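In the design runs reported in the main text, the only information available to the sequence generator was the tokenized backbone. The following block is the verbatim input for one such run; it is reproduced so that readers can re-run the procedure and compare outputs position by position.
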């Protein structure tokens, strides 16, 4: 898998992944954005992902349907209430029910397959280990372990001189730092979608962990959050 300047970027439609795509584009990669329709209750993020891919300049945007939502076990895919109005302490105390079992493992595996097909060595993912909801598959240990596995699992890396790199540029950023970086790259956060439990019209609830972290990030960055919230 020779270096071609291509990168696969996981794009959820939220502000972290939008910023990640902008960073990859800034670095000069020809970016192939990959999103997933996995039965999530917040499918509005897929429309946001399409807008972001078009606006930021992805070469192609692939929305892949996968059935991990059929497995259940998460408030994002099953009939389980999304936690609301949790404090920072509560969010850091345990892994919440919004965790989707093995989601980033599955997503990165699909991205790896596409990267090998495209001849790309770089896979970008917007995981964050600072301002996040405690998901185990957002930790640096996971990213490092997946990269090691990827270089054992692909034909290109075993038979050729390719080296798969899992790029997580936001890993140690606070949410405010992510937002400031995105603003410097002209990311339009008004087209992103973060809420885990939006209204039927797509308005953000303002109370789930994701909404609260987003609000906190904009406040700490000294910027106005362009999101339309139900409560407003």
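Verbatim output:
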């Amino acid at each position: 898998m020779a270096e071609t300047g291509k990168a696969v970027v996981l794009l959820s439609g939220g502000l972290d992944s939008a910023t990640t795509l902008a960073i990859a584009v800034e670095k000069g990669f020809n970016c192939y954005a990959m999103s997933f329709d996995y039965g999530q209750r917040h499918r509005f993020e897929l429309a946001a992902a399409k807008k972001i891919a078009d606006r930021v300049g992805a070469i192609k945007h692939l929305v892949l349907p996968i059935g991990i939502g059929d497995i259940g076990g998460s408030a994002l895919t099953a009939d389980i209430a999304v936690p609301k109005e949790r404090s920072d302490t509560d969010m850091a105390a345990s892994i919440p029910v919004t965790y989707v079992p093995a989601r980033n493992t599955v997503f990165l595996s699909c991205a790896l397959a596409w990267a090998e097909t495209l001849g790309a060595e770089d896979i970008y993912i917007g995981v964050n280990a600072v301002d996040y909801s405690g998901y185990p598959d957002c930790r640096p240990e996971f990213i490092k372990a997946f990269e090691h596995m990827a270089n054992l699992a692909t034909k290109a890396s075993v038979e050729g001189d390719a080296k798969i790199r899992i790029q997580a540029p936001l890993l140690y950023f606070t949410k405010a730092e992510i937002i400031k970086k995105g603003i410097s790259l002209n990311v339009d956060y008004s087209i992103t979608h973060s809420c885990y439990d939006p209204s039927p019209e797509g308005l953000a609830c303002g109370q789930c962990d994701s909404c609260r972290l987003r609000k906190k990030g904009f406040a700490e960055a000294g910027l106005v959050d362009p999101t339309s919230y139900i409560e407003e």
